[in-house]
Design a protein that fits this description.
The complex is a heterodimer of chains A (116) and B (116). Chain A is mainly β. Chain A has no helices and 11 strands. Chain B is mostly beta strands. Chain B is built from no helices and 11 strands. In chain B, the strands form 2 sheets. In chain B, strands 2, 4, 5, 6, 9, 10 and 11 form a 7-stranded mixed β-sheet that branches. Chain B has a 4-stranded antiparallel β-sheet with strand order 1-3-8-7, with no helix packed on it. Chain B is globular. Classes of the chains: A mainly beta (116), B mainly beta (116).
Chain lengths: 116, 116
């Protein structure tokens, strides 16, 4: 069975500082990996996803994530935080070879706060 | 704006009642997904429909049901409502959503259900 763990339910960084949100997955076969962002009172928006190929994935709003198979991780980073990055971030996995491949499993979320 | 619309935005009802949530997918998307987001359970996949047929089932209660109509809009029916059903219900859509697909899910703004 697949699972995804987000380390830290709340992360606070200063504006301009590095953002690092951690995500580890458990799966017998490397799954598809996603990061979503949820702004207050809004639905989820896809930041980036990893399927195959290059392990460093660039997404929207300056975010990127690196798939590390040996560490079963898919951490999300941004070199310089902006006030507008304050939101809830969800890491998610989806099985590749399954009849219900679209069944995505979300992590518990990490709330990112930005200090002025 | 993701292109996915959900109505109503807010719904307040009493225990034991039945409600219907509606979702219109993005133009051209064949798959519709329903999710429940609550404080204690996090974000959970409920069910997926693809071109009118049920494709995948997640943690959906027997009191809940869904369908997708020929025009591809979907409805989620929640009956015999309990206090614990209070949550944010999201609909998402994607182009295909079949096994092995990597198409992106686009989320609607959600319906906030409050059961009193």
């Amino acid at each position: 069975a697949q699972s995804v763990t987000q380390l830290g339910s709340h992360v606070s960084v200063s504006e301009g500082a590095l953002v690092l949100l951690r995500c580890n997955y458990s799966s017998s076969v490397p799954p598809y990996l996603f990061w979503y962002v949820q702004y207050p009172n809004q639905g989820l928006q896809l930041l980036l996803k990893y399927t195959t190929g290059a392990t460093l994935v660039k997404g929207i709003n300056g975010f990127e994530a690196e798939f590390k198979k040996s560490e079963t991780s898919f951490h999300l980073t941004k070199p310089s935080a902006h006030m507008s990055d304050a939101a809830e971030y969800f890491c998610a996995v989806s099985p590749k070879w399954d009849s219900s491949a679209s069944k995505i499993i979300f992590g518990s979320g990490t709330r990112l706060s930005i200090r002025p | 704006d993701s292109g996915v619309t959900q109505t109503p935005k807010h719904l307040i009802t009493a225990t034991g009642q039945r409600v219907t949530l509606r979702c219109s997918p993005r133009s051209g998307d064949l798959s519709v997904y329903w999710y429940q987001q609550s404080l204690d359970q996090g974000l959970q996949f409920l069910i997926q429909y693809y071109n009118g047929e049920e494709r995948a089932k997640g943690n959906i209660l027997e009191r809940f049901s869904a369908q997708q109509f020929p025009d591809l809009h979907s409805e989620l029916n929640l009956s015999s409502l309990e206090l614990g059903d209070s949550a944010l219900y999201f609909c998402a859509s994607s182009v295909v959503g079949t096994s092995g697909s990597t198409d992106t899910q686009y989320f609607g703004p959600g319906t906030r259900l409050t059961v009193l």
